[in-house]
Amino acid sequence: MKLVHGGDWAGYRAEFGRDALDFSANVSPLGLPHGVAAAISAALPTADRYPDPLCRELRAALAAAEGVPIEHILCGSGAADLIFRLVLAVKPRRALLPAPTFAEYAAALDTVGCTVERFLLDEANDFVLTEDFVQAVTEGTDMVFLCQPNNPTGQVTPPALVERLISRCADCGAVLVVDECFLDFLPDRDALTAEQFLNDAPKLVILKAFTKLYAMAGVRLGYALCSDTALLAGMQAAGQPWAVSSLAQAAGLAVLQESAYAEEVRTLIEAERPRLADALRALGLYVIEGRANYLLFRAPADFGEKLRQHGAVVRSCGNYPGLDDGWYRTAVRTKEENTKLLAIMKEVLA
Predict the structure, then answer these.
(1) Which residues contact 343 (CB under 8 A, 6 or more apart)?
(2) What single-letter DSSP state applies at residue 114?
(3) pTM (predicted TM-score)
């Protein structure tokens, strides 16, 4: 089976008998916060009981942190779980996606036989989303996905444009999904989030996750925000009842105390992203000026495989609609790791 995502450390280990310098997955380079690891350990004695299927304590803590009613929150096993639940609950017939964007949207839509319309972003404009995408929403559109910042381009859509998209979707009766799983890496996240529009936009669903910022990819925990409680109830019913383990719920509660860790990650990424981008350009590669904890760049089509042979892995983006085999995405990690990657890249390109 061929996987469509990065982070396949097990596949690399099976092929090469060792671990790679892995830049294919965009998670915090600082590892699981100590407080979260301690909370998971402390919760182990409860593992013999079924977890709370309604995540009551976690949702109450999230409601306080986000400033929204507890009824407007649904927790899931990562954002991917919530994407599939939403699609299964709504069963859209026609959906609009920018291209390139996160693969899981189309994968979920395919499960209900939805027609997926892809709006190709302009490479000449560095894949920036424009007003044309808003106008592509029509009366026949049932669901729209917006990744903020977009994966894999790292481009951020300005709040004014997001607001126009929300209005257009409301006029056309479409559910708008704004995926903010990478937004918390940005210092100005509070100014960019679509949460300010939640109360007046019942067909707006915002996805968030602890997976990326807190290095919890193996724990699996995310949540959806929506003012339409009936829609959230439909999502809750669209999957198995115990979506979030008791250990993940304990981890989520602990994460909300990790503000210092989060700031450390943001500071690191803000310093290392421009340094890594400049170094990639110095190697003769074309780099998109994104704002996330990853960078999209163009290189020779065989670059990724050569890199694998040299012990490093980036995300090949040839399977993203709208991109070809010459595009790659690299995570931004610590200065030491980034320096190691650049040295291997230099050797491969020489």
Answers:
(1) none
(2) P
(3) 0.95
Rounded to an integer, what distance in angstroms lies between the CA atom of residue 211 and that of residue 5?
A: 14
pLDDT given at position 14: 76
In terms of Cα–Cα distance, which of 129, 84, 82, 122 is closest to 73? Answer: 82
Average of pLDDT values for 303-328? 95
Which position has the higher pLDDT, 6 or 229?
229
**Cα separation of 28 and 332, whole Å?**
9
**Dist. CA 333–CA 268, nearest whole Å:** 8
What are the E-state strand segments in 226-335? Answer: 286-287, 294-298, 312-313, 315-316, 327-331
> What interhelical angle do 229-237 and 78-90 show, nearest 10?
100
Gap between the Cα atoms of 84 and 109, Å rounded: 8
Q: Please, which contacts does 275-281 make with residues 24 or more away whose CB atoms are closer than 8 Å? A: 275/335, 275/338, 276/330, 276/332, 276/338, 276/342, 279/338, 279/342, 280/330, 280/342, 280/345
Quick one: which of 222, 255, 251, 257 has its CA closest to 47?
A: 251
Order of strands, sheet of 204-209, starting from the edge strand that comes earlier in the sequence: 73-76, 222-225, 204-209, 175-179, 143-147, 94-99, 115-120
User: Which residue, chain included where needed, has tokens 């500071």?
Assistant: 267
